[in-house]
Design a protein that fits this description.
Oligomer: homodimer
CATH class of the largest domain in chain A: Mainly Beta
Strand content of chain A: 15-25%
GO molecular function (chains A, B): DNA binding; DNA-binding transcription factor activity
InterPro entries (chains A, B): cNMP-bd_dom, cNMP-bd_dom_sf, Env_Response_Regulators, HTH_CRP, RmlC-like_jellyroll, WH-like_DNA-bd_sf, WH_DNA-bd_sf
CATH architecture of the largest domain in chain A: Sandwich
Distance between the termini of chain A: 29 Å
Order of helices and strands of chain A: HHHEEEEEEHEEHHHEHHEEHH
Pfam family, one (chains A, B): cNMP_binding
CATH topology of the largest domain in chain A: Jelly Rolls
Strand order of the largest sheet of chain A: 1-8-3-6
Keywords (chains A, B): DNA-binding, Transcription, Transcription regulation
CATH superfamily of the largest domain in chain A: Jelly Rolls
Mean pLDDT of chain A: 93
Number of strands of chain A: 11
Protein name (chains A, B): Transcriptional regulator
Structural class of chain A: alpha+beta
Number of domains of chain A: 2
Low-confidence stretches of chain A: none
Number of helices of chain A: 11
Chain lengths: 237, 237
DNA sequence: CACACTAATTGATTTTTATCAATTATAAGA
DNA sequence: TCTTATAATTGATAAAAATCAATTAGTGTG
């Protein structure tokens, strides 16, 4: 754990309000590590030894069953992952691997649980983090069940645009086959859907996406904050 | 809040380890209420005023978008629902309504948050509850993305059988069209899938389900604890 | 019991999505 | 730069699932 990183962590929502003593003792134990791209971090079914906090880079959450595989989510800094497995002391439901070179801080699950029991403010912050994760998956399930694949792709593009302050042009943050899997479709189907969306206000040029008619695209996606987010930031505590 | 109910609550995982003082003050504030079947409790998009704890009966979580609707989950006693919205102070992502006559205890969200901040053991128990909810939705999403509708139905039947200690005969706990929606299919599709499953070891007789060939059904469903549960019970704290 | 109402089923059809096979594009390494 | 490997696209087809329409079954009520 590099000393110069500590002040940055202290400012994260998860650590901001905890007691200095708890924070210092966790920082003593935690260690941060760099991982290369495409590095497996966690296998589904294993037990949680460490809470992972992604500080830099990107991590993909994947699930497999019976020879099938699916991208379940993308984690971006700064967020924890596998917090639920740590708290429940239960096996991971998903595997995790880096997409890019990533910096990850790891806290032993036992120490995490001890700190939670010792420091109510930390516990509340961790709950909020977990609550956000819960809501992310409710949204994912709603998206899958209520929208068809064209609508999901349209909503995804608008969501990405929103995250980048409403730009009309951007590059896809991952390979198309991964995006397809995340959106619950095959690469072939994504490819065709992309072409079909030209009539609805989007053009693709390689990995570049250009929204040519935002209004039209929004009409198709019927963007809804209860599916696409974001949650309102919690100003009050 | 009826006095004779208190000891029962005290034994619930959520309340078992909290301080007596916190428990008593919450019980002072909380009130329990009976609701008739098909009663709307919560509308998606509203803000969380009360944590709901289902003590008796059954509650359905539903989501709507753009004229479409889907059953996202069934809550059975004793569990909380909408804990995440309370903790995050964010709007509900799903609506809730009773399926049967239900007894529900309600705790004002502000008091809940105060109690969490005051009592670390309570916060840890609440986190665990939230963690279970998170994992439920990860499982739901995995089920939708990795299995087709026949496999989902087969897995559902086996799961219900398991919950009832491995019986080979049971009654569906909800209407078929609700089950269809929960499993992400149309009622017509469910009806046909039911018929198709006869070749795989299940018979339906009205609302009665009979597993005629468990091995065969399990081969089809490829039951997996990382999708179908259950989580191992957390004996240790 | 008859009535009305809703749920469930069935058949015919369309739409959506997946699969398979082949080709083209893109990127990384020698 | 050429080579090789992988990703993306395209076309043809099949499978899965949704939709629409009609009928049958089931439920609760007066």
């Amino acid at each position: 754990m590099r000393a110069e990183e500590k002040p940055g962590f202290r400012r994260l929502p998860l650590f901001r309000e905890m007691m200095t003593q708890t924070f210092d003792s966790l920082m003593q134990i935690a260690y941060s590590q760099n991982f290369p791209p495409r590095m497996d971090l966690i296998q589904q079914g294993e037990y949680a030894d460490f809470l992972h906090i992604l500080v830099e880079g990107a991590v993909e959450l994947r699930a497999t069953w019976n020879g099938h595989e699916s991208v379940m989510g993308i984690v971006r800094p700064v967020s924890t992952f596998i917090l639920a497995a740590c708290v429940c002391d239960a096996p991971y439901l998903m595997s995790a691997r880096t997409l890019e070179r990533s910096r990850i801080v790891m806290i032993p699950a036992a120490d995490l649980r001890a700190a939670l029991r010792r420091d109510p403010d930390f516990a509340v912050a961790a709950m909020r983090e977990l609550g956000v994760g819960y809501r992310t998956f409710v949204r994912h399930a709603k998206n899958l069940k209520l929208r068809n694949s064209r609508e999901r792709l349209a909503a995804y593009i608008l969501q990405q645009s929103q995250l980048a302050n409403g730009v009309v042009s951007m590059v896809l943050p991952m390979e198309k086959r991964h995006l397809a899997s995340y959106l619950g479709m095959t690469p072939e189907n994504l490819s065709r859907t992309v072409k079909a969306l030209r009539a609805d206000g989007v053009r693709f040029q390689g990995t570049q996406v250009i929204i040519t008619d935002p209004a039209r695209l929004m009409a198709l996606a019927a963007t809804d904050s209860l599916i696409d987010g974001p949650d309102p930031e919690n100003i009050a505590s």
